[in-house]
UniProtKB/TrEMBL annotation:
Top-level division of the source organism's lineage: Eukaryota
Species lineage: Eukaryota, Metazoa, Ecdysozoa, Arthropoda, Hexapoda
Boundaries of every Integrase zinc-binding domain copy: 8-62
Protein name, as recorded: RNA-directed DNA polymerase
Organism whose genome encodes this protein: Ooceraea biroi
Gene Ontology MF terms: RNA-directed DNA polymerase activity
UniProt cross-references to Pfam families, sorted A to Z: Integrase_H2C2
EC number: 2.7.7.49
């Protein structure tokens, strides 16, 4: 463990990102949630790529959910 976070093996990165991304909370919220629970090298980079390439996130990024 790294602090109180789980170090996630490479084989599970995609699954973990998909679970976090289901709510389409945006990059900042997704990074915050991820950092609270787990870690892997380049975690922030992977989140940035996922959010930037998400059509729904890009559609609503300037009009947040209320």
């Amino acid at each position: 463990m790294r602090g109180h976070r789980v170090i996630v093996p490479t084989t599970l990165h995609k699954q973990m990102l998909q679970e976090l991304h289901m709510g389409h909370f945006g990059m900042t919220k997704m990074k915050s949630l991820a950092r609270s629970y787990f870690w892997w090298p380049e975690l922030d980079h992977d989140i940035e790529n996922l959010v930037r390439n998400c059509a729904e996130c890009n559609t609503y990024k300037n009009n947040p959910k209320k």
